[in-house]
Every structure is written in structure tokens, then in C-alpha cells.
Amino acid sequence: MIAQVGFLTGQTTQLQLMPVIFRQTTIRGIAVAPRTSFDRMNPFLNQHRIKPVIDKVYAFEDAVQAYEHLSRGAFGKIVIKVAED
Q: Which domain of life is it from (predicted)?
């Protein structure tokens, strides 16, 4: 499975199809807004003191449990910390 999250430059590419077919690859496109939207959103969130609801924070070693929690349904965000502060 290949998850393509947005793109930095260009919207076309050359793709060798035989490896994709032989490996039975699934390509999933994930649309995201441009970086400028993200940059405008953050000051708005800070100004209005909007904070995300975090259901639970998991250590990186517990990522499997985090995904299991997510699949069961979560009230808020599930966070996986990749490093200690």
C-alpha cells in the first residue's frame, strides 16, 4: 500500500506499472490543503484559544495499541509520541 499525501511540486510523474501490478500495490491519494492554509490556521487557533481534544497519548513503542484504540473509536485525537520532550 502506498499512501500519497499531497505533493510538493508537479502533479504528474512517470510510473513503471509492472512492479505495481506484480506486487498488487494499492495507491491511495490523500488530499491536503496547501501549506499556506496551515500557516494561516495556527494563529487563528492560538488567538481563539482553540485546543484539540486529546483522548490518549501513547509512547512510540506502544504504537500498535494506539492504532487498536483508534480502530475501536476515540473521542478525541490519539497521539503517538516519537520522542520525549
A: Bacteria
The 10s digit of each residue's pLDDT in 5-48 is 887 777 888 889 999 999 999 999 888 888 889 899 999 999 99
C-alpha cell at 2: 502506498
Secondary structure of the chain in HEC code, one letter for each residue: CEEEECCCCCCCCCCCHHHHHHCCCCEEEECCCCHHHHHHHHHHHHHCCCCCCEEEEEEHHHHHHHHHHHHHCCCCEEEEECCCC
pTM, entire model: 0.54
